[in-house]
Amino acid sequence: MRLSWLDQRLTFASLVALPFILTFVFTTVKARWIKRAGSKNGEHQPPPAPYTVPVLGNTVAFATDTEGFLRRMLKRFGETPFAVLVGADKLYYVPHGQPVLEMFKNSRDMTAKPLTIVALRDSFGIAVKDLAVFFRDGSGISSKPAEGFEDYNPDHRIFHIQHRDLHLLLSGVSLDEMTSRFVAKYTGRLDKTSEIPKSSDEWAELPDLYGFLRNEMFHAATESLCGEHIFRLSPDFARQFWDFDSKMITYLRRLPRWMSPKAWRIRDEALASVKRWRKNASEKFDSQNEELANAEYEPLWGAKIMRAREIMFTKSELSDDARASLDLGMLWATNANVIPATLWALLNIYLTPGLPARVMAETSSCFDSETGSFDIAALCSKPLLTSIYHEALRYSVALTIARNPLTPDFKLAGWKMELGSLLISNPWYGGRDTGFWNTGRVAASSGRPEHPVDSFWAERFLEYPDDPVSGPTRKDESVYRSAEGKPKSIEDDKKAKVTTAGVQGHFYPYGGGSKICPGRFFAKQEMIAAVAVLMQKFEMELLDPDTARKAKPDQAFFPAGALPPDRAVPVRMKRRKL
Ligand code: HEM
């Protein structure tokens, strides 16, 4: 019997599809079997994420829809770490909850060195010859050199020196100095900005709140870090920096210059500006002047941390090009997360009825009504504003945290992780775990929670003494069926307490363990001050609340930082009457 034309085609299609179907069935069954069998005494490696195409594995799904792919896999594997087959690398995803806490606790047996080197090369453009300085240093970040590196030149211990200086010079007195400078510069800029008329009777329409905030915060933070000259020498540096930031995912995809000439050109431009600032500072700075060398701040290099880095670069014999790349990296770490996160805090204050008045009531007492100066420690202790700060991080941070095991028999959550493998985790998913977070009462009208995890709830991190539904973590279901709650008032806020107790495994925007973000104290003060000062100085209204409500974290930036809004939010602002 002869097959019809259609039958022939179907048979051919089935034969072509068969290997893929078999691969999918095989990897799915294997994953399920390994997960169910568990790994007693760490004898098994984590189960693999199922895939359809042999060799390619999960590469396409991971590269084209990272957020969706990891979300689906986390649903499948729960708290079990899983292997992702991407290229030749052995990659394990470490889920939120106990596994990620264990990863942070085991800092001593892990390193972030390989991925740091990859980021320096791919994102910030360090040439291969300079990478040798990082490759050769296996002495670790602790003050005591790792085994085998006891006699290693202490001046070449770049990972340790960087770790020590960052944590020392972004805390204590240096932190206080940096915050005061940020506040002074930011306040000065808001006072002078030509975007908002001087008269308190006149409104100014701004097409994009994020654009405005980004510009003001970036100038203030960059000058407090790098001194007075960077924008004088490169007036367009802010635009160059944000263009560079918008191409971060392209750099991480490792496309060569000929395939993404624009992204490379943009980075060259930003690097050229950093080099101009560096050249000016190194030519004019008097390194023999001890007072200047020890100052918390001087106008050429800026904050003490930047001078400490320069000494480290010199001792490590890094080229001028590499130094510029490293400083661009520092500027990126300083600005690229904190500014989008601040936008979400500010925007959601104005999207929530009654919230601007509550925040103003809470913060006004911290400001001197005559001079406008304020007490940053008092501001940072205010529960409502601190809850908004935490919620902005929970809502927007999607930054990949990476580690490599240092020991051959490394185990995590009972699973064996190969030496040389890469472990990654991302706070985005823990922050959106519906089974963990409190999502508020169930609305009678819709039968749905009032504050789902993908929405911003200013009060999520607050406990109100007379509200059993308050507090960040999920309550017993019976609590949610209790009587309708009332909107919170200024009086309620006075009794509220901010809490992060019990959320560590689900809320780690700054990473954790010994590699935790050294800039987290500055980030908190900067965000809180940026919001409070702007609200004190200006009245603000959303011009198009519907568009503002639709603004969501832009997935095009996933998984490389706090996600900015996916659309412009127009506002109008006018100066408050003194
Ligand atoms: C909302 C704002 C911020 C977020 C969400 C954030 C998040 C992070 C994360 C997740 C890491 C990696 C931690 C790990 O591997 O466990 C990191 C590292 C780092 N952050 Fe932040 N960060 C923020 C603000 C800042 C600021 C303001 C600065 C500088 C003043 C800064 C400087 C750094 C540096 C230099 C590193 C690398 C440290 C190292 O290699 O040891 N960050 N940050």
From TrEMBL:
Q: What CDD domains does the database record attribute to this sequence?
A: CYP7_CYP8-like
Q: Which SUPFAM superfamilies match?
A: Cytochrome P450 (SSF48264)
* Basic and acidic residues bias: start-end ranges: 473-491
Alphabetical list of InterPro entries matching this protein: CYP450_sterol_14alpha_dmase, Cyt_P450, Cyt_P450_E_grp-IV, Cyt_P450_sf
**Chain ranges passing through the membrane:** none
Entry keyword set:
Heme, Iron, Metal-binding, Monooxygenase, Oxidoreductase
Cofactor(s) demanded: heme
Coiled-coil annotated residue ranges, if any? none
Which top-rank group of organisms is this from? Answer: Eukaryota
Q: Which GO terms describe its molecular function?
A: heme binding; iron ion binding; oxidoreductase activity, acting on paired donors, with incorporation or reduction of molecular oxygen; steroid hydroxylase activity
Q: Where is this region: Disordered?
A: 468-491
Q: Where does heme bind?
A: 517
Q: Which Pfam families match?
A: p450 (PF00067)
Entry's family note: Belongs to the cytochrome P450 family.
Q: What is this protein called?
A: Cytochrome P450
Per the UniProt record, the source organism is Lasiosphaeris hirsuta
Q: What is the lineage of its organism?
A: Eukaryota, Fungi, Dikarya, Ascomycota, Pezizomycotina
